[in-house]
Structures are given as structure tokens and as C-alpha cells.
Amino acid sequence: xxPLLEKEIQDGQQAFQLVDGEMIPAINIVGEKYEKRExxxxxxxxxxxxxxxxxxxxxxxxxxxxxxxxxxxxxxxxEGDIHDIGKNIVCLMLKNYGFNVVDLGIDxxxxxxxxxxxxxxxxxxxxxxLMTTTMVKMQDCVELLHKEGLKCKVMIGGAVVTQAYAExxxxxxxxxxxxxxxxxxxxxxxx
Length: 191
What we know:
alpha/beta; 8 helices
């Protein structure tokens, strides 16, 4: 992808135009095909990695263009859980869509998530859990956010998580995969 981008820049295209007019529409097509089961997880990951390389190349030029950075999404795998493959894919996809992603990593206590959300002025917090024994920590985080008076939205995901669970704990939404996480984050940021 980088040689194609280099040629476009040499031909006078602006970095932001390439991202907004070419790269994001392309990843949207991949996302739609993934949802329709015309493409599968390996193709989604390959596309996301390709986009990442393109964004890395364009990043200095985007900063020169002084385009406004997207909303901040804070991502974390909750306390007690060390699984992060799904979260990492979501982080990559969110970055590809222009979000400022702060990835706290794995096994993160609710107190640390809330503290970092305040520091980063996060618009959305994305919480991940793979195990039923750790998904209860999502509720701890939502409750602490309310107690601390933070207004950021919470989206949750992971193999054991459902929309019903999101509603039960007061999260603002559930995403079953990276494509739906991007859609949800965009929706939550526009509310």
C-alpha cells in the first residue's frame, strides 16, 4: 500500500484526502463483506494491518495537514483477564477510522480505567472480557464511572458478553466484533 500512497502524494493528493476518500471507504467495503460473511477474520486482519501501514506512512503528513484528531477511545481488558486478541483487533480498526485510541492493555482494574479516562478525556471506554469470571469487572467499572461523575460512554465486548448484559450493567452498547465496535463507537460519539 505504501508505494501506492507515495505515488498519490507525489501526484499532488493530500494525505487527508487519501484517508477520507480512499482508505476509509476501502475498509468500509471490507467491513461490509465481513458482516455478509464474504470475507473472514484473516482477510479482516490483513486489511486492518495494511491500513495500519498506510496510516503510519501518512501520519506525519496528516499532522502537517493539521487535521483534527478523532475522539478518544480508551480500551482495556478488565481486571483478572489476560485475553487481548479481540481487543487488539478492535484497537487497530478504531485507529484506522481516525479515533485516538489509548490501549491500557490487559488485567486492568476499574480504578485505573476510570482514572485514565479522566486524564485522557475519553469519549468512549471499550471494555473486553473473555471469561464469565471476569466480565463482572465490567459492571464495577460502569458503577465507578457513575460514582465519579464521568460522562463518557461505555461499550463492551468479548466472547461471553451480550447486549442483554450490556443493558443490565448500564453500558451504552455491545459489539460482537471489530466492525460493529467501530460502528458503535461512531454512534456513541455522535450522541
